[in-house]
Structures are given as C-alpha cells and as structure tokens.
Amino acid sequence: MLIITPVNSYAEYRNIVKGKRLINNGFLPEEIDKYISQKRLSYFQTGNRLFLLYDEVKYYQLVCEGLISNGMPDSIPFVSSKPIVCHIVENKNSKPIAEVTAVLRKSGFHLRCTIHEYIHEHLADLPAVCNRDFIVCNKPEISSDCHTILSLWQKSLPLYEVTHMLPEDVQGLADKNRLVFLKESSGGRIAGACYFDVFLGTTTVHHIVTDPLFRGRGCAGILLSAWLEQAKPAGAKLARSWIEDSNISSQKSFSKIGFCKTPNLSYQFIK
C-alpha cells in the first residue's frame, strides 16, 4: 500500500531530501516554503526511491530521485484524478536516467515534448537593445497590468503551467524585481512578458511570451535583452532557458543574441 506523507516544515523537507539527487528539483527555498505552508507538498517512497509530489491545484508535479543504483520499481503506483506532470532532465553525455523514463512509460505516462537547454556565458558582452515602439517595464502601474500579463500567459502556455498562478503572484514577481514586460509606446497595450530567477550565479527565464498582435516586431529580442540587463545586477553570470524542440521561433531568437544549445535535454511526461 502506497503511503503519501505531507511535508510539514522546511527542516523536515531538508531531512527528507538529504543526500538525494532529485531530478528537476529546481525550486528555491522560499518557493518550497510556500508549498509547505499551503499544505501542497507531500512525498512517498517505492522501490527505495523518493518521490516528491507538488499539488499545483489542477495538476500534480512529480519530482523523483535520479540515482539508479538503488533500483527502480516496475511502476509508480500513485493514482490521481488530476493530471500528473513529470520533467526528466538528461545529460546526453552520460544518460543517467534512462531507467527512470522507462518506468514512467510503464506507469502510463506519455511524452508531451522534448525541451532543449540553451545557455549564454558572456552576459557582459551583450549590447542593450533600443526600440522606440515599446517601453520596457518591471513594475505594473495599474492593477489591470497583472491581470493582462497573467491572461497572456494563460492563453499562450500549457494550462497546467499557469493554472496555479494568480494576479497577486505576478505582482509578487514585480516586487522581487523578477518581472519584465513590454508596453506599446503609443497605445500602452502590453506586448509581451516574462519572469526570471537568479540562483548561484545562473539566471533562468520563464514564461516568455509575445502577444500575437505584436509578433514580428522584435518584441522577443527586446524582452530577452531586458531580462539579461535586469538579471546582471542580481549576480547573474550565466543565462539559461529551456526551449521546446518544436518552438523554432524561440530557438532563433535566443541563438540570435548568442545563446548556444547544450547536450542537456528535459523530457516532459504527462499522465
């Protein structure tokens, strides 16, 4: 019988994951604290393998231990009425987790997409991008800005990536100086948005989206440059993005300003 146990404190979480190599456990401490305080983080073990279960309201995110020396179970017995999303990161040089992906498939998961890692190691050399048609912003001037940005993300991104977000979460990103968005100089309409984090000298961009009405006008390049300019004072030395293999336009936008594809891949599985 599978026993799912809630995590009640960050200290307990640290003890649970101590010595574990968790695949795609990229959450920052304050983010984990939020899950714990809202009683949305649990864990279970099967086949001597640790699994963390993040409740994203309309779906579950499953994070699993990557060491294969302990042996994987034949399948993952967790069953849910909500979708379960699991990201598996693989380095093509070592392929350490083929066993994990095989178990996911046996457990009823299917591969939604393959995502490539792109990095930029020379942030100091990036020139600023100027464009008179758009204004780079990081603080919403009116409350409706947060609603508009969230609506843009919800219309453009897979639903399970943004269903847990609220307008106050967008405002929270702005308060932490982690939000970047563009406004049209003439009409004031929001043309695109993204947010980012900075951890151990690496900045990663998330939810970079351009409104379809403004595509083809260089918005993606302006957003990328604004993100990197904003991340450098926060200590970023290296920039990273994960881009789906089918998103050719984003791959071109990142490559244009010097991002290079690495051997690392992320596989997104859904059940």
How is the secondary structure organized here?
Elements: E1 5-6, H1 10-17, H2 29-37, E2 41-46, E3 49-55, E4 60-64, E5 84-91, H3 98-106, E6 110-120, E7 134-137, H4 143-156, H5 159-162, H6 167-175, E8 179-184, E9 190-199, E10 202-210, H7 219-231, E11 238-244, H8 248-256, E12 260-270
Parallel strand pairs: 4-5, 10-11
Antiparallel strand pairs: 1-2, 2-3, 3-4, 5-12, 6-11, 6-12, 7-8, 8-9, 9-10
Keywords:
271 residues, 2 domains, globular, Aminopeptidase, alpha+beta
Top-tier CATH class of the largest domain = Alpha Beta
**SSE series:** EHHEEEEHEEHHHEEEHEHE
Which CATH-level-2 architecture of the largest domain?
A: 3-Layer(aba) Sandwich
What's the end-to-end separation, in Å?
A: 20 Å
Strand adjacency order, main sheet? 1-2-3-4-5-12-6-11-10-9-8-7
What is the count of distinct domains?
Answer: 2
Number of E strands? 12
Query: Biggest β-sheet, characterized?
Result: 12 strands, mixed
